[in-house]
Write a structure and sequence with these properties.
It is a single chain. The protein is an alpha/beta fold. It has 20 helices and 31 strands. Strands 12-11-8-6-7-14-15-24 form an eight-stranded mixed sheet, with helices on both faces. A seven-stranded mixed sheet has the order 5-4-17-16-18-19-20, with helices on both faces. It folds into two domains: 18-498, Rossmann fold (3-Layer(aba) Sandwich); 518-639, GMP Synthetase, Chain A, domain 3. Bound molecules: 5'-O-[(S)-ethoxy(hydroxy)phosphoryl]adenosine (WTA). 5'-O-[(S)-ethoxy(hydroxy)phosphoryl]adenosine (WTA) binds at residues 257, 302-304, 379-382, 404-409, 430, 493-495, 507, 510, 516, 521.
């Protein structure tokens, strides 16, 4: 825990030395309104806000800058035109390294966003409408987000790896009447049938939309439904399309994310607070300098892609690289080749990718020039110190500070991270709270855990910050229940954490029924519901277990219907079934057929025991005497050991 890597000496350009951080952090807590109203000046407001945070967590009601108005797209694009119109906004690197990439200057991006906004208008989209975006990782995906923001429409981006069932659920939940998609996506040389998936989603009962906008990406001929589907090229126009004036608290986007219960939640972010948070965190965490090339490898279907591929970089007038491919195609040097090709200065990726590439050896890294790199970042899951070291020493040649950024879909942007030239780094620790963030630990009873030394508990945030989600779309009661009821008066993150004697935060992982697979959140309840839909399955219980590359793997205990025999063929079929129901990221790693699930006499499944067995940790099974059938545990342990 006391393995410390000193921060490099602050370069002349930096906007945050150690002393500045300490002073700014103190001020952000002592006078949050003054501090954030000042940060809000990074943006162009149509009406400048005079009010800061107006919020309560009991019950949750959250507003920031409520008397201000602005447009996100104006701030991300239009306002840079006068002084920086010819600078690069996006660099696109395709899946196939031999295929031509492209770049868009701010002026070109503006023209493209206007064209897309006009196409959306022609489709029927108006201010306040929800628009589902199901796109490959191409520039037009980000353009679609910006075009929605321009019109005041609320985007709901659905990750291109999700199934038709998942798309349908998300369309229905937010009553979206419009979809933006592409013919196909490309990943590792394989095509992804995006339009066909949308068609399948819209064929499901009870799902109807008015218009589908189809972008030609691979050029594959796709069926077009008369009256509903429109080719992008047929609807675009260069007509003038002004930015809508939006109140700071008008919604900007909905993004679905997994929770411990039920279906994914539509986390809602509003315009002003989110914009201030995205702009401020991007600038400080990455110490972004004009002209630098920033590459965040996340897909725009996740919050990381929203805040650090699209909005954060553009709000700062930066250059953001959009990569359609994967780290190991056509070979394990692909990331480093892209860094060399585009002279990337700041690289931001997930620990799972780092672990997977580390395993392939240093040769792939050494083969490519990384002298352009200045800063490295990670996000999505705890990083093990070994992977951190490799990233820092081998990828960054020991020269580049590493920022390990802890945050969530619900937080809008970074919450805990070291700042590159202000804080020493500790491999495996996310570091210190960002401005305005007040992390606190509470025990199982909700009592604060305090003291000067090392403390551990459930991670909560004591006070609101501008980037905080405002509600769950259409279900404020669920927002209250999920985040503010376990520990009343505080925002509960769902994570466990430790704070060391130096004030550094160490995230220990989820403490709820959410698992983190390759940096993606997956609700165990979602996988269970998918499994029990299969006619052979009687009951299912799903838990996470440690996985070398993915961080956590998906372990499924399944009981079968009377008369159905367990077999390897059935296991394969169930894996495929879950993939089809949710998407490839939910594919079970382990299927464990059992004749029963450990339950209390009142019928509650004892997940603690299932987790321990999945972890191969039999010494810690605890008291099993309250089980309805204590001998079941022995049979489960035997089943686990037989599987290796
Ligand atoms: C986990 C992704 C440790 C955490 C931005 C959180 C992390 C969940 C880190 C949110 C990190 C994210 N260290 N754990 N640096 N970053 N997490 O909503 O469990 O997809 O609650 O947002 O990822 O996942 P989400």
């Amino acid at each position: 825990m006391n393995d410390t890597v000193p921060h490099p000496a602050p370069p002349a350009h930096t906007h945050c030395t150690p002393e500045e951080y300490a002073a700014m952090y103190r001020r952000s807590l002592a006078d949050p309104d003054g501090f954030w109203l000042e940060q809000a000046k990074r943006l162009d407001w149509m009406r400048a806000p005079t009010r800061g945070g107006e919020w309560s967590f009991e019950p949750p009601q959250i507003a920031w800058f409520a008397d201000g108005s602005l447009n996100m797209c104006h701030n991300a694009v239009d306002r840079h035109l006068a002084a920086h119109g010819d600078e690069t906004a996006f660099i696109f690197e395709p899946d196939d390294p031999a295929a031509p990439g492209s770049t868009l200057t701010y002026r070109e991006l503006h023209a493209e966003v206007v064209r897309m906004a006009n196409a959306l208008k022609a489709l029927g989209v108006r201010k306040g409408d929800r628009v589902t975006i199901y796109m490959p990782m191409i520039t037009l995906g980000a353009v679609a987000m910006l075009a929605c923001a321009r019109l005041g429409a609320v985007h709901s981006v659905v990750f291109g790896g999700f199934s038709p069932e998942s798309i349908a659920g998300r369309i229905q939940d937010c009553e979206s009447r419009f979809v933006v998609t592409a013919d196909e996506g490309l990943r590792a040389g394989k095509t992804i049938p995006l339009k066909a998936n949308v068609d399948a989603a819209l064929d499901l009962p009870g799902v109807a939309v008015e218009g589908v906008l189809v972008i030609a990406h691979t050029g594959k001929a796709v069926p077009m439904k008369e009256g509903r589907d429109h080719r992008y090229a047929d609807l675009v126009s260069d007509a003038d399309c002004p930015c809508e004036e939006m109140a700071a608290e008008d919604p900007l986007f909905i993004l679905y994310t997994s929770g411990s219960t039920g279906k994914p939640k539509g986390v809602l972010h509003t315009t002003g607070g989110y914009a201030v948070w995205a702009a401020t965190t991007f600038r400080h965490t990455f110490d972004y300098q004009p002209g630098e090339v920033f590459w965040c490898s996340a897909d725009i279907g996740w919050v990381t892609g929203h805040t650090y591929v699209t909005y954060g970089p553009l709000l700062n007038g930066g250059t953001s690289l959009i990569f359609e491919g994967v780290p190991n195609y056509p070979d394990h040097g692909r990331f480093w080749q892209v860094i060399a090709k585009h002279r990337v200065n700041i690289f931001y990726t997930a620990p799972t990718a780092i672990r997977a590439l580390m395993r392939e050896g240093n040769g792939w890294v050494a083969a490519h020039d990384r002298s352009s790199l200045r800063l490295l970042g990670t996000v999505g899951e705890p990083i093990n110190p070994e992977a951190w070291r490799w990233y820092h020493d081998v990828v960054g040649e020991g020269r580049c500070p590493v920022v390990d950024t802890w945050w969530q879909t619900e937080t809008g942007g970074h919450m805990i991270t070291t700042l590159p030239y202000a804080h020493d780094m500790k491999p495996g620790s996310a570091g210190l709270p960002f401005f305005g963030v007040q992390p606190v630990l509470v025990d199982a009873e909700g009592q604060p855990v305090g003291g000067e030394g090392v403390i551990e508990g459930n991670l909560c945030i004591a006070a609101s910050w501008p980037g905080q989600a405002r509600t769950v779309y259409g279900d404020h009661a669920r927002f209250t229940e999920a985040y503010f009821s376990t520990f009343p008066g505080k925002y509960f993150t769902g994570d466990g954490a430790r704070r060391d004697a130096d004030g550094y935060w160490w995230i220990t992982g989820r403490v709820d029924d959410v698992i983190n697979v390759s940096g993606h959140r997956m609700g165990t309840a979602e996988v269970e519901s998918a499994l029990v839909l299969h006619p052979c399955v009687a009951e299912a219980a799903v838990v996470g277990y440690p996985h070398d590359i993915k961080g956590q793997g998906i372990y499924c205990y399944v009981t079968l219907m009377e008369g159905v025999e367990a077999s390897d063929a059935l296991a394969t079929e169930l894996r495929q079934w879950v993939r089809k129901e949710i998407g490839p990221i939910a594919t079970p790693d382990h299927l464990h057929f059992t004749d029963g699930l450990p339950k209390t006499r009142s019928g509650k499944i004892m997940r603690r025991i299932l987790r321990k067995i999945a972890e191969n940790d039999y010494g810690a099974l605890g008291d099993t005497s309250t089980l309805a059938d204590p001998s079941l545990v022995d049979r489960l342990v035997e089943g686990r050991q037989n599987r290796g």
